Amino acid sequence: MARRGPLVGEFFMNGDIACAEGGISAGCRFFAGYPITPATEVAERMAARLPEVGGTFIQMEDELGSMAAILGASWAGVKSMTSTSGPGFSLMMENLGLGIMLETPCVVANIQRAGPSTGLPTLTGQGDMMQARWGSHGPYSIIALCPSSPQECYYLTIKAFNLSEQYRLPVLVMADEIVGHMSEKVVIPPPEDIPLTPRRQPTTPPGEYVPFQPDEDLVPPMANAGDGYRFHVTGLTHDERGYPVMTAAAQDKLVRRLIDKIEVNKADIIEIEEDGTEDADVIVCSYGISARVSQYAVELARGEGIKVGMLRLITVWPFPEERIRQLARQTKTFIVPEINSGQIVLEVERCAGGKAETLLLPHMGGSAHRPETILEAIRSAVK
Amino acid sequence: MNDDGSEQTQEMDQYLREDRMPHIWCPGCGIGSVLHCFLSALVKTDIDADKVCVVSGIGCTGRAAGYVHLDSFHTTHGRAIPFATGLKLANPELQVVVFSGDGDLVAIGGNHLIHAARRNIDMTIICVNNFNYGMTGGQLGPTTPLDARTATSPSGNYERPFNIPYLAAASGATYVARWTSMHVRRLEQTINEALLKRGFKFIEVIAPCPTVYGRMNRQPTGMDQMRYYQENSVIQHGADPKDVDIDLNGKIIVGKFIDIDLPTYSDLQLRVEQKAFGPEESKGEAVKKKAATAASKSK
C-alpha cells in the first residue's frame, strides 16, 4: 500500500468524507473519536488517511475521552479534531467547556441526526443548533459553521481549523445527516492554494511568557507543551498567569474576554450568502440541508413573480445579527425552515425586533422539508 | 523556609511553583508528601523536565498540577487520562504523568483508566487514595472500605470498594505498585523506576485525610493515620493483586505487584504501519526514536 498524502483534484465523495479530507488539508494530524451514526465515516476516513500523512488516529472509549484527547493533542502542538452526532455531542459538552476555558484550538464536526435521545440515528435533524451555542455550562461564546454540501463540508472544515487557531477555541462544524451522506463533486485544490492560519506562538522567552495575556485582538499566544515554557492551565477561573483566582472580579475579567474575543471580531468570522434580499418582500433564512431545499422553493416562487430573497447562514454562531437587523428594516417577513421545533428562528425573531414578521417552518426530523411546504409559506406571506 | 529559619533550598524546589504557596491541602493531608516523592524521584532521573507534562483531574489531589513548575494541566473531573493520552500520542517525546485522586481516576474516570491500561499507553499514573471525596467534604468514594463512615454513609458504608491494583492489573497495566504516604523513600524509588520504564504504569498511594475521612473513622489526625499505616502495612512484593483488598482498619499490603514488559500502544501502531506501508521511515519510526530519547537512564 502506498501513502497518498493530501489529495488534489476532483472527487465524488460524501459530506462525511469531505469533512475528513478538509481536516487533512487543514493540517489536522490527530483525530480521536467514537463510532456513531451518521458521523462514523468521518472517523473511518481519518483512520485510513491519518497514517498516510504522518498523523495519529485513536478510537477512544467514549466521546468524553475523545474530546479530552483532542484537547491534549492540541496542547502538544498538533492540530486535532473529532466528529460525532447528537448523543456523542451531548457527552462532549463537558470538555468543550474545558476547551473554551483553556482556549484550545480544535474542531468538532457534528453530523446531526434527529433527537432527543437516540432518536433517529440514520435520519437527519438540525436539533443541536442551540446546544452548539449553549450546551456547555456557564457563559461563553462559540463559533459554529453549517455546510450545505460535501464541497462545503470540505471547505468549512478548513475554515473551522483556521478560525480555531486564530481565536483559540474549539470550532464546531454543524452538518446534518443528509449533507453528511450525500455524494457530490468535491474539488480539492493543491496545498499551496489553501490558506492556513498558523498557531500564534509566544514571542517572549520562557520566564517572561504570560500564558493568558492577550494580544490586541484579545487572543493570547499559545505555547506548546514540551517547548520549555512550563505553563500551567486550569479549567478554574484564572488570571493571566493561568493561576486560579476565586473572585468575582477575576471571573468577570476572564469570561468577558472569552466572550469578547469572538464578539469584537464578529465581522471577520461571519460568513453568510444572500440572493435577491435587497428588494425582497419576504426572505427565507435557513442553513444546512434546509437552505438547499429553501433555495429551490425560492426559485419556484420567483417563477410566480414573488419578490423573495434567500439568506443562507454559513456561520450560525456568532449569529449575524447586524445583517438581520438591516434586512428587517427593508423586508416584511422572514421565513425560517429548520429541522427542529424552532431554534435559529428565535435569533432571527430577536434581531428582527418586531420590524419584520418572523415565521417558523418547523420539522421534527427524519427528512428535509418538502419544497412545496416552503413555497406555500412564501405565497401566504405575500398575500 | 526550613524549621531553623534558614532558606536552604532543595534540588526539587526548581519544580515547585513557589508563587502558588501556600497550597490548599489541610494539615495532616498526605498529598503534599506524595508530590514531594514525585518531584524528588524526577530530580533523580535525567529526564528533561521541559518534556514532562503533569495532568490532573478534579479534587484535592487534582490540585497537584497547579503546584508544579512543569507544563501542567488541571483538566475536568475524570478526564485526566484521556487528555494525557492526546498529549502523549500527539507528541511521543513528552513524559506524561497523571497525578490525581481515587475518586477522579477510579469512579468518574474509571472507564478511561481501564482503557488506557488496556492500550498500554506510555504514561505514569500516580493515584492518591484517601478513601473518600475530600474536597467536597468527605463523601464515600469507590475505594471507601466497607463499614467506614463518610458524609454519605453516615451509619457505615455498604458498597464494596474497588481494589485498585487488581483493577489496574486486570486492565493491562504493565507496572502496578502500592505504597502509603508514610513510605516516602520506597515511594520515591518506585516513582523513579516507573518514570524510566515504558508502558502504562500505575502507582497507588494510600494517604491520610484526617479532616474529613479520619475524623469520621477514629483517626482524627494525620499522625493517627500514619501510625495506622506504620502498624498495618505489610510489604509484599509480587503479591497477587487480587489479594490486596483493604478492609477498614485492616492490613495494607504494599509493594510492587506487577512489572512486566509488553509492547506499548505506539509500538503496536508502528508495527501495523510498517506492515501496511513498508519499511520506509514512517511516522511510527519517528515516534519510536523520540520515545527512546525520552526514556533516559537514571543518574
Order of helices and strands of chain B: HEEHEHHEEEHEHEHEEHH
User: What radius of gyration of chain A results from the CA coordinates?
Assistant: 21 Å
Low-confidence region ranges of chain A: none
The top-level CATH class of the largest domain in chain A is Alpha Beta
Plain-language structure description:
Chain A is α/β, with parallel strands linked by helices. Chain A has two domains: 9-193, Thiamin diphosphate (ThDP)-binding fold, Pyr/PP domains (Rossmann fold), CATH 3.40.50.970; 274-382, Rossmann fold (3-Layer(aba) Sandwich). Chain A is built from 13 helices and 16 strands. Chain A has helices at residues 15-26, 40-49, 63-75, 86-101, 129-134, 150-167, 177-181, 248-263, 266-269, 288-303, 321-328, 344-352, 371-382, and strands spanning 9-14, 30-33, 56-59, 80-84, 106-114, 120-124, 143-145, 170-176, 183-188, 232-234, 272-275, 282-286, 308-313, 315-317, 333-338, 357-362. In chain A, the strands form three sheets. In chain A, strands 2, 3, 4, 5, 6, 7, 8 and 14 form an eight-stranded mixed β-sheet that branches. In chain A, strands 11-13-12-15-16 form a five-stranded mixed β-sheet, with helices on both faces. The radius of gyration of chain A is 21 Å and the shape is globular. Chain A starts with 8 loop residues before the first strand and ends with a helix. The model of chain A has no long low-confidence stretch (mean pLDDT 97). By secondary structure, chain B is an alpha/beta fold. Chain B has a single domain, classed as Rossmann fold (3-Layer(aba) Sandwich), CATH 3.40.50. Chain B contains nine helices and ten strands. Chain B has an eight-stranded mixed β-sheet, sandwiched between helices. The longest helix of chain B has 13 residues, at 31-43. The two termini of chain B are 28 Å apart. The chains are: A alpha/beta (383), B alpha/beta (299). At the A-B interface, helix 3, helix 4 and strand 10 of A face strand 2, helix 2, helix 4 and helix 8 of B.
